[in-house]
Amino acid sequence: MMARYWAVLRLFWGTAIAAELEYRLNFLISTLSSLGSLIGSLFGLFLFYGSGYQFQDWSWEESLVVLGIFTLFQGFSATVLAPNLNKIVTQVQEGTLDFVLLKPISSQFWLSARILSPWGFPDLLFGTIMVLYAGLQLGLSPWAYLSGVPTLLFGFLSLYSLWFILGATSIWFVKIYNVTEVLRGLLDAGRFPIAAYPMAYRIFFTFVIPVAFLTTIPAQVVLGQGQVAWWIGSAGLAIALLQISHLFWRFALRFYTSASS
Amino acid sequence: MSYPTSPPARRRPKLAIALKPVLRVLTITRVMLSVYYAYMVEYRAELLFWVLSGTFPLIFMGIWAQAAQSGQFAFDSVTVVRYFLSVFLVRQFTVVWVVWEFEREVVEGKLSPYLLQPVDPVWRHFFSHVSERFARLPFIVLLVALFFALYPQAFWVPSWGDAVLSAIAISLAFCLRFLMQYTFALLSFWTERATAVEQFWYLIYTFLSGMIAPITVFPETMQAIVLWTPFPYLIYFPATLLIGEPTDIVKGILAIAGWSLIFLALNRWLWRQGLKQYSGMGA
Q: Do A188 and B52 touch (CB under 8 A)?
């Protein structure tokens, strides 16, 4: 069972990358864009720290870790989330979702993993470099980075589930490109540690849209501020959201009435 | 022979001839505005999401309001909150997406039938943007009302002078932003990735227009450089006018006018060159 999914995934991504590599200029453009956005983000952070202000007890390097993780998330969503889930809308609109549903494979898996876009790679690279640089400045041990990996992966999973739930609403509303834009806008809050926000924002970004679990908590784990508790917390959130997204998709499919019928 | 009625009869057609182009423009404006308004209202749910996706300034509002409480910056939290709410409003009224539509029209050859009409295709896009502002208005009013209900300390009413001036500044900022994006859109005659140019430009716009922070917190040299670019006049300038903070109005208007002229010249030149290049693929 697992082996079959693995083989399918390899085929999906192999063909997707082969197709994308035909547009090599795009890769250059996306590298330039992510470099520009990195410089802009650093500039934004500098505006706070430059005048001697700091976010509660987050030093400049510690905030850089958060920004690095945020960049990793941007890369992740550009590589996997955006290209696949924007396709759901097209599938529903044109009725080609029928063909996906007929295949002897989980339709959620098919819709979520069909495409891998290399355009997010520069962001993934720059994010890693930033985390490593800030970690070097802070003198972090290799173990510290490793301890952050599980929370980061659970974060990816949580974000994916949220995104998929929104994508699934396309069954009812069809044209929902903008819903993902709304989510993307809210995720922008993740570029700063959650402690930098006023109380109301903190509550919203922890309990309503769990942005805190995506960037701040992995950063805290890397910085050695409470590990086991956060592992459990982020794992619980990720598993719960994944399960909800799965149930929601099954529920949504009951309302799917192909395009031509 | 006498023609008692001839002088007035002769004068009337003269007046009508003189007024004809004006009337024609007015008719076109009215028709296009009402048609595109009807289009836009059809997708109300989508519009609401568009409005909500402009939350970027509200995130920075929170973080700067918190920072202002430390007293290390030259403004208090209420001013910051008002500033970023104004940024939100200015952004809502100056959203432009012409490059995506134009690129698609060129790539799919849909531009060809529009070229046959006796109206420059740009007006179609321009009026669809303008009428979308009206369709968006109820959502904006609701959101702003909700905002003040949640945070009444920040409530303020701009003076008549400020309101009129900022309305003018917002309209000019919209025109400049439309003009810039339409200029980039014309690049789709040569490349299929005109949107990439716009996206890169948008990146610079995000960080230098005052969307992430008022220009006054930038370092001195940075401020001096940024004020020569068109970006701060698109957001920072109208937003400060709206909250009644002191700004150099004449300089702001002149900067918008100057950059508009530069882009207009570039735009018309690209348009003429582009039409020679255009092959009407797929049509």
A: no
How many domains are contained in chain A? 1
Burial class, A24, CB count within 10 angstroms (exposed 0-12 / middle 13-18 / buried 19+)? exposed
A140 domain-assigned: yes
> Which domain range does residue A84 map to?
2-51+58-253
Digit-coded pLDDT (tens) for A201-212? 899 888 888 888
Return the amino acid letter for A107: S
Q: Which of B63, B72, B204 minimises the CB distance to A192?
A: B63
- Neighbour tally for B84: CB within 10 Å: 28
Query: What is the rounded CA–CA span in Å between residue B159 and residue B243?
Result: 9
Q: Give tens-digit pLDDT for A22-42.
A: 777 777 888 888 899 899 999
ipTM field: 0.83
Q: d(Cα B251, Cα B227) in Å, to the nearest integer?
A: 10
Q: Dig out the tokens for A187 from the structure.
A: 């995720």
**How long is chain B?**
283
> How far apart are alpha carbons B232 and B265 in whole angstroms?
21
The reply to whether A242 falls in a domain is yes
Amino acid letter at A242? L
Residue B23 CB neighbour total at 10 angstroms: 10
Q: What is the dihedral of CA A88, A90, A92, A97, to 10 degrees?
A: -70
Give the residue numbers in B contacting A (CB under 8 Å), as ranges. Answer: 43, 45-46, 49-50, 52-56, 59, 62-63, 65-67, 70, 72-73, 193, 196, 199-200, 203-204, 206-207, 212-213, 217-219
